[in-house]
Every structure is written in C-alpha cells, then in structure tokens.
Design a protein that fits this description.
The protein is of the alpha+beta class. It contains 13 helices and 20 strands. The model is unreliable at 425-436 (pLDDT under 50). Strands 3-2-1-7-12 form a five-stranded mixed β-sheet, with helices on both faces. A five-stranded mixed β-sheet has the order 15-14-13-18-19. Among the domains are: 87-162, 2-Layer Sandwich (Dna Ligase, domain 1), CATH 3.30.1490.110; 196-352, ATPase, nucleotide binding domain (Nucleotidyltransferase, domain 5). 37% of the residues lie in helices and 28% in strands. Helix 7 (234-245) packs across helix 8 (249-259). A hairpin with a 2-residue loop joins strand 14 and strand 15 (223-230). The protein is globular, with a radius of gyration of 31 Å.
C-alpha cells in the first residue's frame, strides 16, 4: 500500500466547532496524527446541517488547514452524522439449519433479514450490531458459523437515522470540494477512542455533552446496546443565561464557559462575573451563585431525559463501569459531580485511550472534546484496512514548473548587413521627401 493510501481524513461537524484530522496507523498499530484543523461552525443547528453553503464553508476552511500543513490534496472524507432523529430498534429472527450446522450463509441471511424488516420510509440503517446468538438454546455464542445445531436465534441492535441527514451532509461536503467516503453515526463511533474493552464488558455509558445535542452510548458485555442523541445540549444552557440575566448571546456563552458551575453549592459566594458595556447596553455584574443556579436547573432537566433513556434499556443497574463524560460540555466546573448525583453512578472524564504516536496536537486531542473526531478517524482507518484496494483519500500536490522561455536565435552576419542596407535606404528616402 502506498504511503498516501495509508492516510485517512475525518471531519467532525459539530454545532459550534468543525474539526478535521489527517492520520494513519503506524506499523505497531499506534495512531499517528499528521495534521489537525479547527474552525467555527456555520450552518448547523442541533447537529444537523441546515444551510448547505455555510456548512460547506466551515468544512472547506477546516480541511484547508490540513492541506496547507502537509502539501497534500484531500479528495475524500469520513464524517459523522448527528441529530435528534438517530434511533435504535431491536430485532430478533431465527433460521433452521441444514445438515445440523450453522453456516456463514445462514448468519448472513439473518443479518439481511434484520436490515430488510427494520427500516421505515425516510429512515436508513447505518449499523447492525449483533447482541446475541443462541444455537439450540445455548447462549453466549459470539461467532456461530461452524457451530453444530438445528436452530439459530439472533438478536440485533439496529442503529438508524433520517436519510436526509446524510443527503445534506454529503451535499455540504461536495460543495466544499470533497467527497463523502463513509458516514458514521456519531454515538456509534465515540466509544472507539475513549472506552476500554474492560469498561464495555462491565457495562458503561458514554455521555457526550455537545453544544447542540447530548449523545448517549451504552455498552454491556462488550456490545453496544444503545446509541442515540437528545436534541439539546450546551446551547440551551447559554440561552437560559441570556434570558435570565438579560445579556447578549455572546456574553452568555462567555460567562458560562469562564465562570459557570454545574451545581450552585460548588459556586463561591463572594464572586461576581463582570459583563462589559456593549452598544449602549450598560455593564452589569452577575453573581457566580445565581449563574450556577440557572445552569444547574437546565442540566438537571437534561439528565432527567438521560436517565429515562438509560432506564428504558433495563441495563441501568448493571453498569459496573459507570459513566464516561466527553464533549466540550465536560469542561464545565463540577459537571462530573452533578452527573454522579443525578444518576447515582461513578463518573470519569473521557480521554483517548488508544495508543498514539507522539505528535504536536496533544493539547487539542487528548481532551474529552476529541472523542467524536478520533472515533470517526479510527473507524475510517479500520474500514480502509478491510478493503482489498482502498481508494486514496489524499494525493500529493504536484508543483507546476514555470514555462521555459523560447530560445533566441542569433541572426547571421549576412542577414544583419541586409537589414542595415534596407534601413539606410529608407532613411534616405524620407530625407529626400522632406527636402523636396
């Protein structure tokens, strides 16, 4: 495989930030990040593309950072799909075997049946996760092909989303000058970078606190049982601060990030946030306690929805590894304590656990906010490895050579003499004409 074919490009188009990354796996299976770009997102609301031109400009700017720093031309991108219309659907089916053996064809037939019977108009299946195989009543079979038995039962978790999400995402990427390689559902890929196999086996929830959405991924016995997004995130908190304190949106986001606490009990009693004067609006002071009260009220509402989704799975009391918090919302002071208080589970902050080659982007990537971007990249690199002839996602920029000047031919001595005689004759002709 050529050097450029080992590379993959991933883009995470969030509600507030668009981030792009270029990387590869090294020979010892470490993640080597060669370039990273980040810009402010435009044209996206609650994780969904709502303005093609603006979203395309955000993608183009983020990817151009990769191209300029590596002298490579990006052609294709792996990208994530986000939005409130991401859903899960369980499906069970069975087959009788021939020859008292489960064949690979039977296993594939079960998966194909699940895909055919689980989609409705306007939806598209993106990921099919086998959660259980049972052969003649024997449970706990992960690879049923080759097992002896007369009947096989299969249960799947089907992860799907509105097909318009991908259409609008693909249009924005194409308008930016690139091609969508493979789309991934964001809650499906986030655990790849931040959750260990032991955590997935024991039972764990990855809670991604974004600006426009709140993602939930639940693993138990090393299988993904739930992957969805709630249609609200940090932006609704900023909006409550704006309305409750009567300040402009930019200042509301600023005080939330710099002065906010997730719980009022954690905020200092004697500190205030200074809101500067702007365009005739007078400056004001907001106490940290009052600000934390607004934030806590909205966060508790969000966590009520999270708890409802977790309880509906039946695995809430089986989550031995607790909750892992990712997303930029994980930077809010005391958020881990509020999540633990409202769920009764242990909480830790999520950071990349995959082996990474030493590089210059640790400050940007070894954070809870990088789970989605790294998850898309890891899944994309794994997908490229499964292809026999992977299409290159980047290509070297060929420098055009400057055109060479045409050679100047030297005139012969005889030709020069002829030119001089003609020139003298013409000058004499003009002189005689003037004298006459």
């Amino acid at each position: 495989m050529s050097q450029t074919r080992e590379l993959a490009v991933a883009v995470d188009i969030g509600t507030s930030r668009t981030r792009a990354i270029l990387g590869r796996f090294t020979s010892d299976n470490k993640l080597d990040v060669l370039a990273f770009g980040e810009v402010t997102t435009m044209g996206v609301r609650n994780g969904v593309v709502v303005n093609i031109d603006e979203a395309a400009e955000s993608i183009r700017k983020a990817v151009s950072v990769l191209e300029n720093s590596t002298n490579l031309k990006v052609k294709k991108l792996y990208a994530g799909i986000s939005g409130p219309k991401i859903g899960n659907r369980p499906y069970s089916c069975y087959r009788m075997t021939e020859g008292n053996e489960v064949t690979q064809a039977i296993v594939k037939g079960l998966a194909d049946e699940a895909k055919r019977h689980s989609v409705v108009a306007g939806e598209k299946i993106y990921h099919l996760v086998p959660t259980e195989y049972i052969v003649d009543g024997e449970r706990g079979i992960n690879k049923p092909a080759g097992i002896a038995g007369r009947r096989i039962d299969a249960t799947y978790t089907i992860i799907l989303a509105s097909e318009n999400y991908e259409k609008n995402l693909a249009r924005a990427i194409e308008k930016a000058g690139f091609e969508l390689a493979v789309p991934y559902i964001n809650p499906y890929v986030q655990g790849a970078a931040c959750l260990s196999p032991d955590e997935k086996e024991a039972g764990v929830v990855l809670l991604d606190l974004g600006a426009g959405t709140t993602g939930i991924s639940l693993y138990y016995e090393n299988k993904l049982r739930l992957a969805l997004e709630l249609p609200f995130g940090g932006n609704v908190i900023s909006n409550d601060i704006k309305e409750g304190c009567n300040i402009i949106p930019r200042h509301a986001e600023m005080v939330k990030v710099n002065c906010g606490f997730a719980m009022a009990d954690l905020a200092p009693d004697n500190k205030v946030a200074q809101i500067p004067e702007v365009e005739g609006w007078p400056g004001k002071e907001i106490s940290f306690k009052s600000l934390a009260g607004i934030i806590q009220a909205r966060l508790e509402e969000i966590m009520e929805w999270v708890n409802f989704q977790l309880e509906s799975t039946g695995y809430l009391d089986k989550l031995g590894a607790g909750i892992v918090i990712t997303g930029n919302g994980a930077n809010l002071n005391g958020i881990d304590k509020l999540v633990s208080f409202t769920t009764g589970l242990d909480v830790r902050f999520g950071r990349p656990i995959i082996p990474m080659k030493e590089q210059l982007f640790n400050n940007q990537l070894v954070t809870p906010g990088s789970a989605n971007l790294l998850g898309i990249l890891v899944h994309g690199l794994i997908n490229s490895r499964t292809l026999k002839y992977p299409a290159g996602m980047v290509e070297p920029v060929v420098q055009e050579e400057a055109p060479r000047a045409a050679p100047v031919r030297k005139k012969s001595r005889g030709l020069l003499d002829l030119v001089d005689r003609v020139k003298d004759g013409l000058e004499g002709l003009f002189e005689d004409s003037e004298g006459k």
